[in-house]
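Task: sequence design from structure.
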């Protein structure tokens, strides 16, 4: 239904409301304000809601923290703790829990390196359990992690690689981390989405591969994603909106062109801009100039959240002191 490029369930719901002024049938939404972030829970619970949203049935939890673009240590810790709290509600409560963390993306392309960087920072423990023949431990659970690369490098579908690992080590849950795309520049690097529906590797740049989900893995798959890019049409659309706002107090606001722009919906403007850019190959994906530092910070936030959520005996002080 939606033409505007987004991987966020929150934004799919926003677009439907903008067009119809109604809530989506088959979808429940709950929003909670924190001092430093807004948490929105979107639950798609039937086929009708899934088809309208363009998202599988399941839960989508979005944490929006505008301060993440220039996060200090305290804010990063707060977001990590909030994410850990949300993850604990979704991860099976099992002392013998076995988790496989999958960092999707390309190490060599910074906006797509979120998954691999998270994997480099998580506390992996499966080898301890295997070496000492333990089934459980009061302070930690069995965690393994892999960054399988991209099909252009390996020649293998990512799902095929993960299926082989799942078949061998038999985890209870898979947690996949990947970069996403947003319809709004303001949400790039400031929004983290957790979903219970899995993920399609490469979705952030429109190069969707086979899905990584419970249907393909045989075990529950959680996905954690952060928008790191927008396409040029989205960026241009946002720029036009800013120009229109600026013109409201100018003489130009009485012009026919101004009124035409003001009355057009976001979807119509996006479609028009995309139609203009595509023939020239100009609808490229865009990110910010400080992407290196941002990916480093975001990967630390997500890794800290995973370490806290998966290991009962580890708190934020431990991960900050010993794991980075």
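Answer:
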């Amino acid at each position: 239904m939606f033409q505007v490029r987004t991987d966020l369930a929150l934004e799919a719901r926003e677009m439907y409301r903008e067009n119809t002024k109604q809530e989506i049938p088959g979808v429940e939404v709950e929003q909670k304000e924190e001092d430093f972030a807004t948490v929105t829970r979107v639950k798609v619970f039937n086929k009708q809601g899934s088809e309208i949203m363009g998202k599988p049935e399941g839960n989508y939890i979005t944490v929006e923290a505008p301060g993440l673009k220039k996060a200090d240590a305290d804010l990063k810790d707060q977001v990590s703790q909030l994410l850990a709290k949300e993850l604990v509600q979704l991860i099976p409560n099992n002392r013998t829990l076995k988790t496989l963390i999958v960092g999707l993306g390309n190490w060599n392309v910074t906006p797509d390196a979120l998954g691999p960087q998270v994997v480099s920072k998580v506390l992996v423990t499966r080898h301890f359990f295997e070496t000492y023949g333990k089934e459980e431990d009061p302070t930690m659970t069995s965690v393994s992690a892999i960054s399988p690369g991209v099909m252009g490098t390996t020649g293998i579908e990512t799902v095929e690689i993960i299926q082989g690992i799942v078949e061998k080590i038999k985890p209870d849950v898979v947690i996949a981390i990947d970069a996403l795309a947003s319809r709004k520049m303001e949400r790039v690097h400031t929004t983290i989405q957790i979903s219970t529906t899995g993920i399609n590797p490469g979705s952030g740049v429109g190069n969707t591969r086979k899905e990584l989900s419970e249907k393909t893995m045989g075990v529950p798959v959680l996905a954690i994603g952060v928008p790191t890019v927008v396409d040029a049409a989205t960026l241009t659309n946002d720029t036009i909106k800013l120009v229109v706002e600026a013109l409201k107090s100018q003489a130009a606001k009485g012009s026919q062109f101004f009124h035409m722009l003001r009355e057009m919906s976001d979807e119509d403007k996006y479609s028009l801009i995309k139609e203009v850019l595509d023939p020239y190959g100009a609808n490229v994906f865009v990110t910010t100039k400080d992407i290196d530092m941002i990916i480093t910070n975001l990967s630390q936030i997500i890794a800290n959240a995973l370490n806290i959520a998966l290991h009962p005996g580890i708190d934020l002080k431990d991960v900050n002191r010993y794991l980075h």
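The radius of gyration is 21 Å.
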